[in-house]
Design goal:
Elements (H helix, E strand, L loop, with lengths): L2 H11 L19 H27 L2 H6 E8 L5 E7 L2 H9 L1 H11 L3 E8 L5
Parallel strand pairs: 2-3
Antiparallel strand pairs: 1-2
Helix pairs in contact: 2-5
């Protein structure tokens, strides 16, 4: 084993501490690599979805909360994201669409980055 190999071995064994969700170790080029960008994007989407769920639980009325839930978040062309709310029946979906403007304002106030709502009818909430 030469000096370079020994230094590399010591570097690989060195403790580096813990990483936060979405954080990766920098590679030699200092960019984090393609996997790092995928993990950061996934962590950001997860944080957005969790914020949307918390906001929906505060905005939704009792009956709405039992029949509708946050299905996903979708990135928008500019900045921010759209929250997709899945309902169990078409009647509730119609009622929520009628109140969309008010609900969007309330959700934008509670969930940072939320720019819109979209309501869909699903067979069962996930």
């Amino acid at each position: 084993m030469n000096e370079f190999q020994y230094a590399r071995l010591c570097e690989n064994r060195r403790r580096r501490g813990t990483l936060r969700l979405g954080e990766t170790r920098k590679d030699a080029s200092g960019t984090g690599g393609p996997i790092g960008s995928v993990l950061r994007r996934a962590a950001r989407r997860l944080r957005q979805r969790e914020a949307a769920i918390r906001a929906w639980e505060r905005v939704a009325r009792g009956a709405w909360l039992a029949e509708a839930s946050v299905h996903s978040v979708e990135p928008r062309a500019g900045d921010g994201y759209t929250i997709v709310i899945e309902t169990r029946n078409a009647t509730l979906c119609y009622e929520l669409r009628r109140r969309k403007a008010t609900l969007e304002r309330q959700m934008a106030h509670l969930a940072t980055g939320a720019r819109g709502l979209r309501f869909v009818v699903g067979a069962e909430n996930a």
